[in-house]
């Protein structure tokens, strides 16, 4: 049985004619490698046996001479699936008719550029993977999706940056799903959520008797992800000692379990995400510079929602439809005023905030159309939420930094932050931090 070699197979669209910039962006976002071709299509694309190839005969605005060239090219590559894009204008009707007949699939202009992507995918018999979970058609998000396709099979680390709630974890997952590692585990670790004293054994495992309480040998997350992908979320929170071991995994492909000096070989791809500025953390001595350069080989920036234009509308609609399909609610859409508010809001919490607001509105709305009040998007609430969100993050960052700097000593931490010890305890509870794990 022959199978597609998922490692290297590409999907290629060879375009005879001139795609618009929007068409180019949409194809790239769908993972298509686009070649704009004249003469010998195969040679121009550098096609290999396993590649999935579709020809696009762009007849829009073609004169008789171009039609003749196109027809010849299509005949030369008669074994490849093809599609014609027509605008119903121009002369040489017989030549056009022959091309239509040859191609089988014909799209009439003006067509929705997305219909083109769907039509192309239909033409190739093999199922192709796309990133359905990541919604958005703004130029910024088409760029992100194109990047995900490009990075997926390059076995190098990717550093994913972006504000809170922009979809960093979703992107990491998509990278894994699109890669040849997809049949193997995807292990996501939130580096900030593991007590610093436990990070080493969580990530790299430990031998029996390595420390008090280590009664059995334990396999770490890296070993359990062998052959797959490890996603290190909030990498800026990784303690320095664990950073050293991570560096070793990246450089040598080996790790040592806690309590052992025997190197264990692991084959994992490392993806990392951060919402903090790692360069600033380097300056403060909290992040290893050499690790940073190892991680920052390929970088993917998730744009904040406010840079995604109409995606806000589109995602709101998508989230509502999705919610409606699973819950019996009155709301079916958004009023004009609500849409206006959605557009005007600054979205400090990005896509997660949008998702939560839409879900909430869907539950509380008493009519078919969601109103600004249901979204809690009055002018004043928007600002309060924005500030609170920001303040929480800043509080947590400052608290963690002070606790780490003082070895988890609450009194010293309180002095440093010029707040009472009680406030330190209160903030720790609020942010789920145990001071004694910051030693
Ligand atoms: N483009 C998108 N389309 C659909 N859903 C999205 C999109 N981006 C993010 N989401 C959803 O928004 C939520 C937040 O996404 P995710 O957890 O990936 O963000 P994040 O950047 O990792 O956030 P944080 O910085 O807080 O960890 C998730 O429920 C995710 O499914
Ligand atoms: Mg996340």
Structure description:
The protein is of the alpha/beta class. It folds into 4 domains: 113 residues, Rossmann fold; 163 residues, Rossmann fold (3-Layer(aba) Sandwich); 72 residues, Helicase, Ruva Protein, domain 3 (Orthogonal Bundle); 51 residues. It has 19 helices and 14 strands. The strands form 4 sheets. It has a 5-stranded parallel beta sheet, sandwiched between helices. Strand 1, helix 1 and strand 2 form a beta-alpha-beta unit. Helix 1 crosses helix 6 and helix 18 packs across helix 19. The N terminus is likely disordered. The structure holds adenosine-5'-triphosphate and magnesium ion. The site of magnesium ion has 3 residues, from helix 7.
Portion of residues in beta strands equals 5-15%
CATH level-four homologous superfamily name of the largest domain: P-loop containing nucleotide triphosphate hydrolases
C-alpha termini separation: 57 Å
As for the number of domains, it is 4
* Unreliable sequence segments: 1-7
The strand line-up of the biggest sheet is 2-1-3-4-5
Largest sheet: 5 strands, parallel
Shape summary: globular
Alpha-beta content class: alpha/beta
Q: What's the Cα radius of gyration?
A: 27 Å
CATH domain class name of the largest domain:
Alpha Beta
- By DSSP (H or I, 4+ residues per run), the number of helices equals 19
**CATH topology-level fold name of the largest domain:** Rossmann fold
Got a strand count?
Answer: 14
Bound small-molecule species: adenosine-5'-triphosphate, magnesium ion
